[in-house]
Task: structure prediction
Amino acid sequence: MTILKFPSFSPSTKENCPSDGTSSPKTHTVPGGNGHAFKVKKGTSFRIIDLHGRQIVDMMAWVLPYPSSLEHLSMAYTRYHLNGTAPPAVGDTLVTNKSEPIFKLTHDDCHTHDMTFMACNPAFYAEKGVPDHRSCAENIAEAMRPWGMNSYLQAASVDPFNIFQNTPDMTLKDLGCSRAGDFVEFEVLKDAVVGVSSCPYDVDDFGGGKATDIAVVTGLKP
Result:
């Protein structure tokens, strides 16, 4: 078995107190099918790594202070600024519902992501006959509880940036293209709290049929 090595990588447990993103680089392993939330500080960078390949990651973000700030990462505004649904290229920025840049994409091994699909939620799985299935909306809401989020509907109201998801022309296909070790990296342009979910969707063998672990590295220098 090949061991993948990343800067400052070591498995970690869920934090009781969210980091402010100002310390040295830290790595958090997110179990497959689960979520994680973390603060990021303007002027730093963070990285999201697909550890095993073909794993989609839903990402949402809210500008601090949360929940008093109503500003969040917006796919609708990002699509407008990028003139379409094609994924951002290195050097492009993701923007908020205030039409202001929040993250700049600085590294991308995969170059294939989605800005059109919603986060999966409990009703989505209930319709498919698996009502107790984990979902991205629940995963992120659960991870955001330390910041005051108390319902998955709060997460479901924000469309995610679906990292490593290959859905051309808004067609959901099993076209997983990320490889083990592929990562994206973002420079932080606004203080924010980021929620991610290792997407648990395993119906019809989408994404390989099994959710796998991802890693988040924070506190990097741009």
Summary: The chain has a mean pLDDT of 87.
